[in-house]
C-alpha cells in the first residue's frame, strides 16, 4: 500500500519523462489563496510508471441495434462509473462536467463561479499503468477546474481494490459569494473591508443557504404538453467519440478515443444561460446527458411520455454519419423541455451567447419511450444544403 503523502507529493516519471508538477501542486492551484503553501521539496522517491494505451478495437456497432443497446444500458444516467486507466484524463473532465451539470437543476440562486467542492479519488495503485493514470487524472482535474473557476475546499486520495473512481462532493455555494450577493441586494449594514467576520451577526448573509439545495427546480421527466419542445444542448464543441463510454464498456471497445472536452469558456457560457432559464422557470423539465449519452438521457426523460427524436440536425451540423456515435457518445450536455410560447425567447438567449442547440421534437402523450428518426423534419441545415448543392441554382437567383 502506498503512502498517500507519497502519491500526492512525489515527482512522477512517466514513460521516461519527468512531469513538471506533483499532483498536490496541480490541485493546489484551485485551493483558496489563504491555503498553506506546499513544501518546495520532500524526501520522497519519484514514482515511475508507464501509460496504458487503449486496446485495438474490433467491435462494430450497428444502427439496427440501437433499441437493443438502449435497453441493455438500462438506468445508465444514474449509474456509478469506474474510470478505465487508458482514458483517465478525458473521463476525469467528463466526470467533473457531469457533476457540475447536475447543479443546474437545483433550487436557489447561484452561478458556476460561486460553486466550491471537494474532489476525491478511490484508486487501485497496484497495477502497472495505474499511477500514470492517476497522475493524468489529477492533471486534467486541476486544469479543468481552474479554467472553469471552480474552487476546491479540499482533495483526497484513498487506495481501493475495486476499480478507479473520482467523486466531486460537498458542493456548496461559497460563503463570500453569498455575502457579496446579499450586499448587492441590501447594502445595509455597511461592513468595512477586512471585517467580513462581522457578517456572522447577520443571519441573512450567512448560514443555511450555503449548501446547494437537494431539491430540483424542475422535474427530470417530460411534462405532458404535446406542443412543447425537446432541445439538446451539448456543453462542448468536441466531436462525438465512443471510447470509455458505457456502450463500449458493455459491448466491447471499437478502439475509439474518448471525447476530449477542451473548451471551458464555452461550458461556462452554456451553464450561465441555462442556469438563468432554469431559475426563471422557462425550463419545465430537464436532464443531464451523461452516462449512456444522448439516447439514454432521452430514454429517461421520456420514460412516461413518448417522443420521436430527430437527429438529422445533429448529423448535418457535425457532419457525422455514424448515428450510434451521436446517440451514445458521452459528450456532456443537457436535454431540456420548453413551452412553445418560450421558443423564440430561448432561441434569442442562446444565439446571443453563440450557443449551439438542436430541437429534437415534441412529446407525444399517447406513447411512451423514444423513437429515433434521421430526417422526419426539414431544418435550416438541410434546406441550406439543398439550395447550395442545387445544380439549377444560379448566381443572383432568389
UniProtKB/TrEMBL annotation:
Q: What name appears for this protein in its UniProt entry?
A: Phosphoribosylformylglycinamidine synthase
What species is given as this protein's source?
Answer: Candidatus Cryptobacteroides faecipullorum
Which Gene Ontology terms cover its molecular function? Answer: phosphoribosylformylglycinamidine synthase activity
GO cellular component terms? Answer: cytoplasm
Q: Where is the signal peptide?
A: none
Q: Which InterPro entries match?
A: PurM-like_C_sf
One record GO biological process: purine nucleotide biosynthetic process
